[in-house]
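Researcher: I'm preparing a figure for a lab meeting and need a structural model of a single chain. I don't have an experimental structure, so a prediction will have to do for now. The sequence is pasted below. Please return the structure as tokens so I can convert it later.
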Amino acid sequence: MEKTSEKNTASFTHLSTLSQYIIPFGNYIFPLIIWTNYKDKSEFADHHGKQALNFQLSILLYSLILALIAIPIFVTVFLQNLPLEAVFNDDDFVIRNFNFQANIGLLSVGITAVVSFWSFKIR
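Model: Understood. Here is the structure written out token by token.
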């Protein structure tokens, strides 16, 4: 049976991932600190520390994969519709005659990736 202090440590390990909204990379740093301090003292805290870090690393991996999908799609769609005379003649960038039907597949995949990315970040 787990003691109350072990349960509190496990809870603080999971709650420390919310520090990402205050401190950059706090969702990795603080659970790692708590886990390394208590992994030898309690099997329960060790298990939950691993779980918290595994979840945060999984979210990072999923976010990177979604960014690798979305960014090239939006860059490709933008560059396909960018008038080259505006680039070479230093004119205003005005995208004319944007064809949604030709780009709807790429745009829907890109938008889905962006929405999924932000849902991971908000969770």
